[in-house]
Specification:
Elements lengths: L6 E4 L6 E9 L3 H8 E3 L15 E9 L2 E11 L10 E8 L1 H13 L3 E2 L4 H8 L5 H12 L3 H11 L2 H25 L9 H31 L1 E6 L6 H9 L17 E7 L2 E7 L9 H16 L2 E7 L6 H10 L4 E6 L9 H5 L6 E3 L8 H13 L14 H22 L4 H19 L5 H8 L7
Parallel strand pairs: 1-7, 8-10, 8-11, 11-12, 12-13
Antiparallel strand pairs: 1-2, 2-6, 3-4, 4-5, 5-6, 9-10
């Protein structure tokens, strides 16, 4: 356990609410709490350090002889705590002023202000969680969809850690075996070992590669599928946006070119998060402001994970449509033939001359076809199954980079075997992969990187 001083912070949001929590952790946590807490049940109650762990006590917080608030005090003794240190949590009334006053009392009694993420950092440094689990804590807090929450909780429970540790254990075993044969050839033999190692290294390389591939879906799960609504002016893009969001966020008029800027909203469809972006209508124009909006629409289109291309089914395909079709070709696209409540001028066969993407007739005005659109999005990205089973997703760019470096080293091992290099030469790259995989779970990272990671956490976590 890392020996540290005692820290304190407000662990709940800084806004008026029914309850607030002030958290204290460290070697002197009980001593600090004893100087500010007074029992309302028994004035001669034993010291906090003598109380049983994981018990709740009713009393008052006092500072300079003044009663600050009526509270419940939770006592948790190391190592069965979040930080693996002695921890006290004070449940008080949720006013901003009262929480600040209780925190100030903790400072007066010997604690210091916690840095952002310092409680979780101590949990990592004290070995309660590894670095991938620590990073998943902030993902749980920031989750914007059911699927993102499930992914983050899965990582918090050690899904990524278990996969990475298994790969590292296999690498370490093979490295140790090679070293043993070199040190004690009388008792260990390398006869036929190359064939066995070839199969093992292929399996390890495939496991690492699958984790890297999962990062594409992992990023979309974490951040939301970047979904761009495109089309000509006045085809119903903003009406569709309002329908999906569930409120009037975009201005809707009969005047073409009303949308000049980019409007972004976060929504859920079947547990999947979408970062849905309404763009300016794409067309040739001489209007300076509208031209800027069209240019930005094209930029967002290039970066989109999913394109929803809205067409006006009551108007014939024109040159602007053909230009948009050319721009979306090759991207994951759903084509919506909007205004299905009006007399159609184009049909699915007309669009098929240009694009082979899924096509759906809808009416944003009437709200028809939206459920089918939602199911189509789920099918397109997750085969219609919003569940995890045993699948692990990498949603962290730092972890992805470490895995990619490990894969490079593993490929070098395979190449060296193909070239007939000596056994001790193989172990160099095997241990390099082992070290890179260690960065995923925090077993081979520097102090600066650790500080940078935890600085992104909210205060009190």
């Amino acid at each position: 356990m890392v020996k540290t001083d005692t820290i304190a912070a407000i662990a709940t949001a800084m806004s008026d609410s029914g309850i607030g929590i002030v958290r204290i952790s460290g070697e002197e946590a009980f001593a600090v709490a004893s100087r500010m807490f007074f029992s309302a049940v028994n004035q001669s109650e034993k010291k906090i350090s003598d109380m049983e762990s994981h018990t709740v006590h009713y009393g008052y917080i006092m500072d300079n002889g003044e009663v600050i608030d009526e509270v419940l005090l939770l006592v948790m003794k190391a190592p069965r705590t979040y930080t693996r240190e002695d921890v006290v949590e004070i449940d008080c009334h949720g006013g901003v002023l009262v929480m600040k006053r209780i925190l100030e009392a903790a400072f007066h009694c010997g604690a210091r202000p916690a840095e952002p993420g310092e409680f979780t950092k101590r949990a990592f440094l004290n070995g309660r969680i590894d670095l991938s689990q620590a990073e998943s804590v902030i993902d749980v807090i920031n989750a914007k969809s059911d699927l993102a929450l499930k992914s983050s909780v899965s990582q918090l429970r050690g899904a990524v850690s278990a996969k990475v540790r298994k790969i590292r254990d296999d690498l370490l075993y093979e490295t140790a075996y090679i070293e043993s044969t070199l040190d004690d050839p009388e008792h260990y033999s390398l006869d036929g070992y190359y064939e066995k190692l070839q199969g093992k290294m292929n399996d390890i390389c495939e496991s690492v590669h699958r984790l890297i591939l999962s990062s594409e879906n992992g990023k979309m799960i974490k951040e939301g599928i970047r979904t761009v609504i495109v089309g000509k002016p006045n085809v119903g893009k903003s009406s569709l946006m309002n329908l999906l969001v569930g409120e009037d966020r975009a201005i809707v008029t009969e005047i073409p070119g009303t949308t000049r800027d980019i409007l972004e909203e976060q929504i859920q469809i079947g547990g999947v998060g979408l970062r849905i972006i309404d763009t300016a209508g794409i067309r040739d124009t001489e209007d300076v402001v509208e031209k800027i909006g069209v240019s930005r629409s094209r930029e967002f289109l290039e970066k989109a994970d999913l394109v929803i291309y809205v067409m006006d089914s009551s108007a014939a395909i024109d040159e602007n449509d053909r230009k948009i079709m050319k721009a979306v070709k090759g991207k994951r696209t759903i084509i919506l033939l909007n205004k299905a409540d009006l007399d159609p001028q184009i049909c699915e066969e007309d669009v098929r001359r240009y694009l082979n993407d899924p096509i759906l007739s809808v009416s944003a005005k009437k709200g028809s076809g939206i459920e089918q659109l939602e199911q189509m999005i789920q099918d397109m990205f997750f085969d219609g199954k919003i569940s995890f089973n045993d699948e692990v997703f990498i949603s962290n760019e730092r972890q992805k980079h470490a895995l990619a470096e490990a894969e490079k080293s593993l490929q070098l091992v395979l190449q060296s075997m193909k070239d007939g290099m000596p056994e001790d030469f193989l172990t160099i790259d095997m241990m390099s992969a082992y070290e890179e995989l260690g960065k995923v779970i925090g077993e081979s990272v520097g102090e600066d990187l650790i500080d940078e990671i935890f600085s992104e956490f909210c205060m009190g976590k």
